Amino acid sequence: MRLFLASSGLGNYAKRLRSLAGSNRRVLIVRNARDYRAEDYAANVLGDKMALFRNAGFDPQVLDLQLFFGRAEELEGYLEQYDPGIIYCLGGNPFYLNAAMHLSGLDKIIHHALLNDAIVYAGESAGTLVATKNLTPYMRDEGRNPEITKEMYGKRAPLEALGLISFYPVCHAFREDHAAKTEMYRRKIMEIGGKAVLLDDNDAIVIDGSKAQVLRG
Question: CB atoms < 10 A from the CB of 195, how many?
Fold first, then answer.
């Protein structure tokens, strides 16, 4: 299993992601963690991320999972045709992302591809959080809960996430404006008996087979 889990963008480790991906530099950027934002804002973010990946030596393409809700076989066919080396999930709201993965079948596709060592699963912020077993520690007011997706998607977001890692990342952990959130997440993770891993915005977690590293700054 190959994972690249960052707090923001690629941190300082674009070279490490290239090495992890090998010769297949095609990146499928999953945009749905930002479905709650205005379209012009999301478009600007996507433009920035596309430029980031191109400048880092990748060939990116955007995937909107809403186009494949209830159409898992079509999504599987689309992925087979594009043949990405990396599936990269943007930051935003983890409950939107988790719901979109579930409704489109991307969660099962990711599991199968990782089992066959066919892709790198990568993400930032929300894309990193959904790699955990369960999103319960990340619930809070301000729309960070499973009910938030019902109006747009017609379904409540599941709390069970991808389950690729046994610990719980806390992204943006050392930013002054996130200090209160960091402490809240740490407390909630402790309450369920989990292990919190705090990530600065230049940090990344890399898992390559049985080897796991937290790359700092």
Answer: 10
